[in-house]
Amino acid sequence: METITLNNGVTMPTLGLGVFQMRDPDQCERTVDTALELGYRLIDTAQSYGNEAAVGNAISRSGIPRDELFVTTKIKVANLTYDRARTSLLESLRAMRLNYVDLLLIHHPYNDVFGAWRAMRELRDEGFVRAVGVSNFPPDRLEDLVLHGGETPQLMQIEMHPFNQQHPSMELMRRHNIRPEAWGPLAQGKFGIFDNPTLMGIAAKHEKTVAQVVLRWLLQRGVTVIPKTVHEERLKENLDVFDFTLRDDEMLAINTLDQNLTVTPQMREPFWIDNLSSF
Fold it and tell me: What does the entry list as the binding residues for substrate (predicted)?
């Protein structure tokens, strides 16, 4: 597995498993079990996913040394205050039966972000967290945190795929040495991604699948990826992206697919924020 180094010196894998929408505990455990057996070492969960305990069960059962794993979780909006952020992380650690997480993220840029950010940095200094970052921040909110939060995040997780390439956010992260990480790297199967002629043509030339081409394109852009699947064959497929390289003209061809399409068009609407605040 290839790795990268974050801006605070912490090393992490470039590809992992996201467990969003795996609400069935047994299914989540089985999927993480299989992923770990196949060689995955980065597991991405969140409080709002409701499956931290299932992830912890699979990790405990795996027998893999803790320092060989990279575990990410996220603080939900309702817990984004100074006091609640601290309490909520300790609850997450108990649920997963872990002494620390490798990466802790603010899940959405709402509530008392700056208070939570201060608590997260203190938790890292106390050894409960190794790296801190954010998720789903638009460029203006990310810049605000960088300028006024006392420290640059180590990573930002954001929706990113060929139809939403996030150029302003990518430029901002490059400028501040923040690692980009793509959730929904396969657009959750939307927008006809698996039938796209450009992607299919490139995949055929490399004798790879469209999914593998998209993941490779993101990796070559310097983006960490956490594709979600519950199927063993796709877990294997998603992991098999380190034995080929896309040419410059192929990268450029995929770059032309950007249409600023999002799988969550309501993300910044008031009703969406109302719903998030109850979780």
Answer: 107
Supply the CATH number for residue 82's domain. Answer: 3.20.20.100
Under the banding of pLDDT at 50, 70 and 90, the label for residue 270 is: confident
* Residue ranges at the known binding site for substrate: 107
Question: Is a pLDDT exceeding 70 seen at residue 8?
Answer: yes
100 is catalytic: no
Helix (H, G, I), strand (E, B) or coil at 82: helix
Which residues sit in the known binding site? Answer: 107
This prediction's pTM: 0.96
Q: State the residue range of the domain holding 155.
A: 3-276
Say if strands 70-75 and 11-13 run parallel, antiparallel, or are unpaired.
unpaired
Phi, psi (deg, nearest 5) at residue 245 = -135, 135
pLDDT band at 171 (very low <50, low <70, confident <90, very high): very high
Backbone angles phi, psi at 176, to 5 degrees: -100, 5
pLDDT of residue 31: 98
* pLDDT above 70 for 279: no
DSSP structure string for 164-183? B--HHHHHHHHHHTPEEEEE
- Give residue 111's region: left, alpha or beta (phi > 0; psi -120 to 50): left
Catalytic residue among 49, 82, 100, 110: 49
